Amino acid sequence: MKSSYTILYVDDDRDDLMLIADAFEKYTEHLTVVHAYNGIEGLSALKKMNETDSLPCLVILDINMPRMDGKEMLRRLRSHSDFKYLPVILFSTSNSSKDKLFAEEHHADFITKPVNFSNIQSLVAEFVSRCKLELVK
To answer: What is the H or E stretch that residue 70 is in?
Structure first.
C-alpha cells in the first residue's frame, strides 16, 4: 500500500531533477514526488492537489526558472489561504544573503544545492524526515 505523502519539487533543470529523483528512489514506497518545471506548473499542480485534499507535506522550489521563478511562486503561496502555511524550501545554487533573507521573510527555509550525489542523498533524507516519515535504511 502506497503512502499518501507527497513532495512537490519545482525545478527546470533536468539534470537536477534526475539527481533528485534518483536520491528519492529508495523512499518511493512511502511517498510520491511530483515534479513541475516552473512556478506556473507548480501552482497548477498544487491547485489540483488541493481539490482532492492531498496537499504535499513539503514544497521544494528552485529560484531561477522560466515563466515564473521560485520567489514569485513563494509569494503567491504565502498570499493564498490554502497554501500559506505549506512548508517550503528554496533550493538553489545561489548562496546569496539576499535570497536567504527573502526566504526568511516568506517563512521558507533556504538550502544551497550540493554539488555531489552523496550530499544530495543526505538532503533528501532530511526532506523526507520533514514529512514525518520514518527513514528507510
So the answer is: helix 70-79
